[in-house]
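Suppose a colleague, Dr. K., hands you the sequence of a protein chain of 162 amino acids and asks what its three-dimensional shape might be. Before reaching for any lab equipment, you can write down a predicted structure in token form. Begin with the sequence itself:
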Amino acid sequence: MLVLFGSTAVAGPKVCEKKGEPLISLRRLGERTSPVAYKDMPPPVITGGFVIWPTGGFSSFDEDPDTNKVTNERAGCLEDADFKQVKVALAKATWKFTTAKIKCMAMSVNHTEWTANDKLVWDDKMCSGQTADAVTQKAIDLVHALAAKLAAAPGVSAAPSK
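The predicted structure, expressed as tokens, is then:
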């Protein structure tokens, strides 16, 4: 005879859905590696992205610019402490930039578009001469650090996203 005097609830893995307007979305743009004839500079193509959702979920991917094949796709949930920190930093970010009067003149098709709350807030281009204010720079650095941390993590996050 088996007698149970209590119960132990075991929580399943945390699930973070990809829904709502992303808190932040980075879209990396670059150029094709295969030779294509263009009169001028070829138009940029998507080479990857990183998104943080209001649910605490994230998704990232790389994309081959020639085949448009998605690789290194990852999705999951941010750790609670990371999500809280990035959410606060993004809420404080003003997305104000100062543009230097003198800047380099190099040009590249490679750049990253930053979208917050469904609005393009920054186009990170080489030699733009743009410097973010301190609170915005803190948010940028934090998002970069999270993206790098998650890209280095083996496989998909332990907590899947929908």
